[in-house]
Specification:
alpha/beta; 6 helices; 25% strand; 206 residues; Rossmann fold
Length: 206
């Protein structure tokens, strides 16, 4: 799916996106978001901020910037930030080509984004570029199953899923993080399926 199609899709569903995703949030995802984000500090960038689902979980005093390719999703995020009394710098921007200077942020946060980025490796390389040397990149992602049979089924179904709802269900995001030049500190399975992953990485120390 091209960048323009991704933007159009998220603009189209922005008004109902939170309702569509609410069953997952109720089950466990909201707790995973809180766990991922609760200890960040300093200058933080969230890529693919969407409608602002993560905003309630940032600690007070966080200097937060958020980017998304969809203006209509960002409008929803602005409404949430205002309701929470948060100061957030929100910008329409493509994660594959961000305009921030090198080494701008202490943390970069991403939750369920790299399943939809057209060129995930390029986007992850941009995450590495804007991350400070002692900083950390924090991800929640669903990935291709490590089970041989289930992974094969996900590969077969991926074109259908992409055409119907957009995201890829067979991305190898852990491997892509490594290829991007980020160094993985740890990976944790979230839930019993082993498809949902928490990934913590840093700039590769040369």
């Amino acid at each position: 799916m091209s960048e323009s199609k991704v933007k159009a899709r998220f603009d189209r569903i922005a008004w109902i996106y939170d309702l569509m995703e609410s069953p997952m949030e109720w089950m466990s995802v909201s707790d995973w978001r809180r766990e991922l984000i609760g200890a960040v500090s300093g200058k933080v960038l969230e890529v693919g901020v969407g409608t602002g689902k993560n905003l309630p979980y940032y600690p007070p005093g966080t200097e937060l910037a958020g980017v998304d390719i969809s203006p209509k999703m960002l409008n929803r995020a602005r409404e949430k930030a205002e309701a929470l009394g948060m100061k957030v710098n929100l910008s329409v921007m493509d994660v594959e080509e961000m305009t921030f200077p090198d080494e701008s942020f202490d943390y970069v946060v991403s939750t369920f984004v790299f399943c939809s980025v057209p060129d995930p490796l390029r986007g992850l390389q941009e995450v590495r570029r804007v991350l400070r040397k002692q900083g950390a990149a924090l991800f929640l992602e669903h990935v291709r199953s490590e089970n041989r049979i289930l992974g094969y089924i996900m590969d077969l179904l991926n074109p259908v899923v992409r055409s119907l709802i957009g995201p890829n269900i067979n991305r190898r995001t852990v491997e892509n993080v490594k290829k991007s030049g980020l160094e993985i500190i740890f990976v944790e399975d979230m839930g019993s399926s082993k498809i949902m992953k928490k990934i913590v990485a840093r700039r590769h120390q040369i």
